[in-house]
Amino acid sequence: MNTKKFTILHSNDMHGDFLAEASGKEGNLIGGLALLSGYINKVRKEEENVLFVIAGDMLQGSLIDTEYRGLSTIELMNYLAPDVATIGNHEIDYGLSHLLFLEKLANFPIVNANLYIKKYNKRLMQPHLIIEKAGFNILLTGIITNKIIDSLKKDELVGSFLSVEEAADEVGKICNAYKNDDIDLTVLLTHIGYESDLELARLLKPEWGVDMILGGHSHTFLERPTEINNVLVAQAGVGTNQIGRFDITVDDDTNSIIEYKWQLIPINDQIAEPDEKLLAFIASFKENVDRKYNTLITKFSAEATHPEREIETSLGNILADALACYAECDVMLLGSGSIRLKKLGPLVTLRDLRSCFPYDDTLTKFYITGDKLQKIFSHIMRIENRDGEGECYQINSGVQAIYNDKDKKLESLKVGNEKIDQDKIYSICLQGFHFANCKQYLDITEKALLSEKCSKVVSTSVQDVLEEYLRNHQNIKPRLVNRLVYQ
After folding, report:
1. Which residues, listed in sequence order, are joined to residue 413 by a DSSP beta bridge?
2. CA–CA separation, 285 vs 403, rounded Å?
3. Could you tell me what percentage of the chain is helix, strand and coil, using 3-state DSSP and rounding each to the nearest 5?
4. Buried b / exposed e across 256-282, counting CB within 10 Å, b at 16+?
5. How far apart are CA 55 and CA 86, in angstroms?
6. Sign of CA dihedral 398, 403, 409, 412
7. How far apart are CA 393 and CA 484, in angstroms?
8. Last residue of a domain, one of 286, 302, 322
9. How many CB atoms lie within 10 A of CB 310?
10. DSSP state of 101
């Protein structure tokens, strides 16, 4: 029996989590790229055959990333030197052409098998990578979440195989073409969410020989990997406070994992020394950003919070009210996922605001009848949409929606503190991203949104609106007032 031991380190959804944070009474440092790099360097020195892989969403979530449009993040990833990465939905946030530019900047391969230039049926990116290590060949490929298409709605040239079933077929194409007796280990890097990873594992044919799915997108923390259809499925939460670690033994004769140990390793100053050179490199970006953004915008009367995207939050209320006030609309539907911090204030700097709301976008006013508005709320408040992967919303003052989970129906909808009139015309505001995906997110077509009166772009920058509103509204009191009620 010819066997070899390997160590696979895997991260996902780093989201620009560059800096360490103090934790506990003793103020021990946790997370951050410098400590993460220190641990990776340590493992690379201690173990013989090490792979470090990233399962998407390196970008977004920090002001440093936003200010440099992802270039800073790729430079920092170059410092970590992953063996391979795949893209997540946020790698496309700065546009398709910019993604391809970032790919050229990366010193590491980025693989994806199911993003296509539709007209020519040609893959957009490198579909797979074969790494030879210790005489063994390891095949890696990448699969993207359906979410990637959301940012590409206006780009008719690019598409993807959307369903998990079609993604499985793409994996089959790669394995059928390249999986042979010389391939000893096959790893899928996915960004489709944990539940979809499990579904994908069930669909993979044993003949394809997939051994492992290392995923992202749903920010799932696991106590142990899940094994389905002889495929090990794992994910490493979110950020840089931890990293997944597989120590495996691979049999060259059967091309399979015969023994493994998996751990979710906490990244702190007890487990590794920070990489001082990387720390200095990060500081060079941080100094430029601090100089520009450390100006005070406003002060809340108390801290505002956004603990979950599926529920009404005090921070969501403040931001939705700000946009509704500016747009003078009846209903403001603010994407909960646009809010990237769990808390903000009482003191709010420009840096805080941009970190909280990093995605700039247009703001457009539409006019729809009450029955269509009721249909929208029935769709966005349904239980199936509150699974951690759905698109949920924060709403403005004067709007209240009550949903009955048991009966799975919208019980009540008030606008302007009055019960909805099915035939009345209401004004509704959406970010450009949500208009482009209105059928999927709101269960209403673009045609229906545009059918009553002419729409109007009320702002080309949501960030500018929020900044000016908060500058001119001091001591806002964060509160929950039962705008979104689930019975």
Report:
1. 401
2. 46
3. 30, 30, 40
4. ebeebebebbebbbeebebbeebbebb
5. 5
6. negative
7. 9
8. 286
9. 18
10. H
pLDDT tens readout for residues 251-308: 998 999 999 999 999 999 899 899 999 999 999 988 888 888 889 999 999 999 999 9
| Separation CA 485–CA 487 (nearest Å) | 6
Cis omega (within 30 of 0) on the bond before 225?
A: no
At CA 115, angle to CA 114 and CA 117, rounded to 5? 125
Instruction: Please indicate, yes or no, whether residues 305 and 248 belong to a single structural domain of this protein.
Output: no
Whether residue 133 sits in one domain with residue 43:
yes
The burial class, CB within 10 Å (0-12 / 13-18 / 19+), for 307 is exposed
3 state DSSP class of 74? helix
> Can you read off the two tokens belonging to residue 267?
């990244």
Q: What is the domain count for the chain?
A: 2
**In which domain, by residue range, is 91 found?**
3-286
β-pairing, 393-394 with 334-335?
A: antiparallel
Is residue 179 exposed (0-12), middle (13-18) or buried (19+ Cβ within 10 Å)?
buried
Q: Are residues 87 and 20 in the same domain?
A: yes
Both 255 and 346 in one domain: the answer is no
Distances (CA, A) of 292 to 59, 66, 69, 178, 351: 21, 13, 16, 50, 8
Instruction: Report residue 203 as tokens.
Output: 């669909």
Q: What is the pLDDT of residue 431?
A: 95
Q: Are 463 and 319 in contact (CB under 8 A)?
A: no
Work out the burial of residue 380: count CB atoms within 10 Å of its CB; fewer than 13 is exposed, 13-18 middle, 19 or more buried: buried
Mean pLDDT of 231-236: 97
CA 270 to chain centre: 29
CA atoms of 395 and 418, how far apart (whole Å): 15
* 60 and 124 belong to one structural domain: yes
Find, among 427, 284, 462, the residue nearest to 357 by Cα. 462
Q: Calculate ∠ Cα 127-128-133, nearest 5°.
A: 165
Which helix H or strand E contains 180, and what residues bound it?
none
List the structure tokens of 11.
Answer: 């991260």
Which has more pLDDT, 382 or 95? 382
CATH of the domain at 398: 3.90.780.10
**At which residue do the structure tokens 């705008």 appear?**
483
